[in-house]
């Protein structure tokens, strides 16, 4: 089973966000594997362990993403590829196009990725890639069973659950609940250092520059207005409850 | 030259979803005088849905009626919408940022070699270019984006862009389009409905949310009762999901759903930053927690320090009384 995992390094979800010089500040920020991608990595390793084959991690990102890739190698993935985007701002269109170029001659059986990244949150790249590669996809999966040439997946559709059967090759995006990602073991960390780790530049993918020209562009970045702490209601419990409903009706005017 | 904006319609239980009207209005808000607004209705019951949509100012409605289009399958829907795209040649495609919108629109964007701006919460069309506002880091920050070229692909977050008012005196042209019967590589075998009859979390105007303080799966019952009285939906914090008290599909936070209801009632939720990211854009926040130091009180408009198992039933009774 030739498995590829689309991975991204993101801010830890507990990080506060600050803006400096019109950009998100990364001062002292802790980075992690995008939590949804971590489910994808775990699932890929499990499928590889059951069916044989190899798990290749692919990231488009800056050099610091190496840490996330090493962590996933230490979890048990076999190889890592970092497609460097230093100095280039790729939008989702261009990122998917770059991944398509990388995968063009790889004949994957399975491609796994996160449902979305917790930083940008658009959730486009994986599904765009499936479309560009002309393979089926199942998004937001909570269960995956692979058998000869086929897979059965459970998919979260706004709380309803769909059971989908799909022929391979196919792409899946991971939703919470798919599995419990393992922690890298110490032997895993030692082994990870010796695993194949390739670096590619966008130039090496042979995509014409105009194809990578962004089709969307950020004009401005803001923090949301800070919320003010409101009122803690006082008095007997019954009074507080009545007061709350009264405030919702007459002050906030929401019911 | 006039442009065509195509809106992908969705229905729930045979009725148009509110978010479809919001997406239609988003298309109108981005359009200029003379631009054409079209809608695509795919699935069953398209004639009724087209009639329902007619009053909201679409110029053309394309319909594709076929049993394979229900339930949503990315392959069948994409095949259908591709036919419409070939015919309508849209300059922009809009939909809700819903389970379907999140799945289908990136396919359309890839097919059209287009940029896509996802999860839009506001649109500013007053300047030289149309500017779209969207959250990043689950609402810890907001970015304004624009397109460098057409076509555009846009998904709008439910509950943020107002639905347009009904327009009188305008009857759209309804254009039935043939389903192309593609060969399928994926099949939906079964749909297990967990939310039938319930209000969908992403569109809910009122959300009653539980954290570790609910203590068990049963602890969500009083929350559900309150949500039912208010016509709202139940959500949860990551803590409650990790503890196994509820399904991950209910999770609100940076890993999970980002919600913007009119009223958010946080019960037994301490207010970790990852949860706050998912709900702090709600219009009115109410916190019920035993711990007066809980961070949730720092973002709540109204707080009650107390045991949720005492407060919630009383509150439910009070809501019931005033809503009668």
From TrEMBL, chain A:
<dbReference type="InterPro" id="IPR012255">
    <property type="entry name" value="ETF_b"/>
</dbReference>
<protein>
    <recommendedName>
        <fullName>Electron transfer flavoprotein subunit beta</fullName>
    </recommendedName>
</protein>
<comment type="similarity">
    <text>Belongs to the ETF beta-subunit/FixA family.</text>
</comment>
<dbReference type="InterPro" id="IPR014730">
    <property type="entry name" value="ETF_a/b_N"/>
</dbReference>
<keyword id="KW-0249">Electron transport</keyword>
<dbReference type="InterPro" id="IPR014729">
    <property type="entry name" value="Rossmann-like_a/b/a_fold"/>
</dbReference>
<feature type="domain" description="Electron transfer flavoprotein alpha/beta-subunit N-terminal">
    <location>
        <begin position="21"/>
        <end position="209"/>
    </location>
</feature>
<comment type="subunit">
    <text>Heterodimer of an alpha and a beta subunit.</text>
</comment>
<dbReference type="Pfam" id="PF01012">
    <property type="entry name" value="ETF"/>
</dbReference>
<keyword id="KW-0813">Transport</keyword>
<dbReference type="InterPro" id="IPR033948">
    <property type="entry name" value="ETF_beta_N"/>
</dbReference>
From TrEMBL, chain B:
<dbReference type="InterPro" id="IPR018206">
    <property type="entry name" value="ETF_asu_C_CS"/>
</dbReference>
<keyword id="KW-0813">Transport</keyword>
<keyword id="KW-0249">Electron transport</keyword>
<feature type="domain" description="Electron transfer flavoprotein alpha/beta-subunit N-terminal">
    <location>
        <begin position="5"/>
        <end position="190"/>
    </location>
</feature>
<keyword id="KW-0285">Flavoprotein</keyword>
<dbReference type="Pfam" id="PF00766">
    <property type="entry name" value="ETF_alpha"/>
</dbReference>
<comment type="similarity">
    <text>Belongs to the ETF alpha-subunit/FixB family.</text>
</comment>
<dbReference type="InterPro" id="IPR014730">
    <property type="entry name" value="ETF_a/b_N"/>
</dbReference>
<keyword id="KW-0274">FAD</keyword>
<dbReference type="InterPro" id="IPR014729">
    <property type="entry name" value="Rossmann-like_a/b/a_fold"/>
</dbReference>
<dbReference type="InterPro" id="IPR029035">
    <property type="entry name" value="DHS-like_NAD/FAD-binding_dom"/>
</dbReference>
<dbReference type="InterPro" id="IPR014731">
    <property type="entry name" value="ETF_asu_C"/>
</dbReference>
<protein>
    <submittedName>
        <fullName>Electron transfer flavoprotein subunit alpha/FixB family protein</fullName>
    </submittedName>
</protein>
<dbReference type="InterPro" id="IPR033947">
    <property type="entry name" value="ETF_alpha_N"/>
</dbReference>
<dbReference type="Pfam" id="PF01012">
    <property type="entry name" value="ETF"/>
</dbReference>
<dbReference type="InterPro" id="IPR001308">
    <property type="entry name" value="ETF_a/FixB"/>
</dbReference>
């Amino acid at each position: 089973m030739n498995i590829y995992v689309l991975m991204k390094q993101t801010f830890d979800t507990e990080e506060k966000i600050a803006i400096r010089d019109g950009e998100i500040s990364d001062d002292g920020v802790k980075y992690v594997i995008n939590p949804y991608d971590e489910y994808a990595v775990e699932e890929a390793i499990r499928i590889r362990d059951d069916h044989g084959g190899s798990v290749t991690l692919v990231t488009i990102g800056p050099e610091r993403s190496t840490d996330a890739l090493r962590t996933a190698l230490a979890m048990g993935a076999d190889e890592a590829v970092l497609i460097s985007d230093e100095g280039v701002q790729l939008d989702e269109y261009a990122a998917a196009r770059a991944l398509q170029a990388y995968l063009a001659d790889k004949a994957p059986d399975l491609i796994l990725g996160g449902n979305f990244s917790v930083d940008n949150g658009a959730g486009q790249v994986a599904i765009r890639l499936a479309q560009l590669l002309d393979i089926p996809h199942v998004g937001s999966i909570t269960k995956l069973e692979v058998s000869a040439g086929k897979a059965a997946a459970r998919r979260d559709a706004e709380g309803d659950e769909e059971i989908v059967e799909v022929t391979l090759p196919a792409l899946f995006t991971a939703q919470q609940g798919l599995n419990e990602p393992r922690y890298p073991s110490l032997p895993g960390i030692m082994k990870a250092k010796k695993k194949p780790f390739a670096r590619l530049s966008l130039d090496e993918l042979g995509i014409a520059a105009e194809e990578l020209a962004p089709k969307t562009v950020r004009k401005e970045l803001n923090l949301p207005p800070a919320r003010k702490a409101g009122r803690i209601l006082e008095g007997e419990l019954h009074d507080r409850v009545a007061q709350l409903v009264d405030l919702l009706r007459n002050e906030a005017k929401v019911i | 030259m006039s442009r065509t904006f195509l809106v992908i319609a969705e229905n729930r239980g045979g009725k148009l979803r509110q978010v479809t009207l919001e997406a239609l209005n988003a298309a109108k808000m981005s359009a200029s005088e003379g631009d054409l607004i079209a809608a695509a209705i795919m699935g069953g019951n398209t004639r009724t849905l087209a009639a329902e949509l007619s009053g909201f100012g679409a110029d053309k409605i394309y319909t594709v009626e076929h049993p394979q289009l229900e339930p949503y399958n990315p392959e069948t829907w994409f095949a259908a919408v591709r036919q419409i795209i070939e015919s309508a040649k849209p300059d922009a495609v809009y939909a809700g940022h819903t389970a379907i919108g999140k799945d289908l629109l990136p396919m359309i964007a890839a097919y059209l070699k287009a940029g896509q701006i996802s999860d839009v919460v506001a649109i500013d069309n007053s300047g030289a270019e149309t500017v779209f506002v969207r959250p990043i880091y689950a609402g810890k920050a907001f970015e304004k984006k624009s397109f460098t070229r057409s076509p555009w692909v846009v998904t709008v977050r439910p509950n943020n862009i107002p639905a347009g008012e009904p327009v009188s005196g305008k009857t759209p042209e309804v254009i039935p389009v043939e389903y192309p019967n593609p060969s399928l590589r994926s099949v939906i075998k079964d749909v297990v409905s967990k939310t039938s009859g319930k209000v969908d979390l992403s569109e809910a105007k009122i959300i009653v949310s539980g954290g570790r303080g609910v203590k068990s799966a049963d602890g969500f019952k009083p929350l559900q009762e309150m949500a039912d009285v208010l016509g709202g939906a139940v959500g949860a914090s990551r803590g409650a999901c990790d503890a196994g008290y509820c399904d991950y599909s209910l999770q609100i936070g940076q890993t999970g759903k980002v919600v913007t209801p009119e009223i958010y009632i946080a019960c037994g939720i301490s207010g970790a930053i990852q949860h706050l990211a998912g709900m702090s854009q709600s219009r009115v926040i109410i916190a019920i927690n035993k711990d007066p130091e809980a961070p949730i009180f720092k973002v709540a408009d109204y707080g009650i320090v107390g045991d949720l198992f005492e407060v919630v039933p009383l509150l439910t009774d009070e809501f019931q009384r005033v809503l009668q």
